[in-house]
Amino acid sequence: MSAVEALTPDQVVDTDRYPLADPDSPEAQAVVDRARRELAEVGCTVLPDFVRPSLRGTLREECAGFAPLAHFDVETVNVYNIALDADLPEDHPGRRTFERGNAFVARDRIPAGSLISVLYSDPAFQRFVARCFDLPRLHELADPLSGLVLNVVEPGREHPWHFDTNEFTVSMLTQDAEGGGEFEYCPNIRSARDEHIDDVRAVLDGQGGRLTRRLPLRPGDLQLFRGRYSLHRVSPVRGATARHSAIFAYSERPGVIGSVSRTRQLFGRVLPAHLAAETVRGDALLD
Fold first, then answer.
1. Is 131 exposed, middle or buried (0-12, 13-18, 19+ CB in 10 A)?
2. CA separation (Å) from 15 to 25, 28, 35, 63?
3. DSSP state of 51
4. Average pLDDT over every residue of 90-118
5. Which is it for the CA torsion 272, 278, 280, 281, positive or negative?
6. What percent of the chain has a predicted confidence (pLDDT) above 70?
7. Domains, the chain, with CATH or none
8. Which residues fall within 8 angstroms of residue 94, CB to CB, at 6 or more apart?
9. Phi and psi of 48, rounded to 5°?
10. What does pLDDT average to over the chain?
């Protein structure tokens, strides 16, 4: 076992600022209170230097080491990740298409001893994230590919405007791009009851400045985000360095596995677990 594999979550996380093992402490409660407030107000919160600064280099090197295992497949998509020939009105934003050029390293190709794996499976980390989202409990995805992934955006590529399938997203930048690669989002641009089509169209037309925010992120920062209701993207990456970010996928219910079509789209393959699973929807939104 290497020194990195031997690290515990308390050694990975700056526990002075984020005391995962002491959730009732004033310090922990202050972090949770701020996260809940910001998530309610703008749909996003950032916990800076969540990973100890001394481990930033290890975090970057580990993820850069398995980034070449990502499934690369540039595809044409829309913001809802639905069929491009869906029966929609002519001026519907779902008819607008983009090239999705980001790629994903699947969970079964991420070493179990890596820093992001140590965090993802740690019960104290899961409880902390659940408290920040004001949820009673979170479960790791049962999906063998999409539970924990590394998102890779190579120079010249982008992750275009989209909504997430999950109501909440947990991510961490592990390597910044030389230029571009900015996280941009439109807080709570839609709700479970209203798609707010006009606002989405305005953003795609480049006229949504009042609705859009840019979020500065650094490697090791933990980002909590309500991506189902907030349109968001990673802008085109410039320079010679790819942008890498870990995505920690959890669900409010156990046993969640992605659909066959979406899994094949993201990873280029499916496993027997995907063929046997059924996807349960919690709302009637387009995606």
1. buried
2. 12, 9, 17, 22
3. B
4. 94
5. positive
6. 94
7. 9-269 (2.60.120.620)
8. 78, 79, 80, 82, 86, 88, 286
9. -65, 150
10. 92
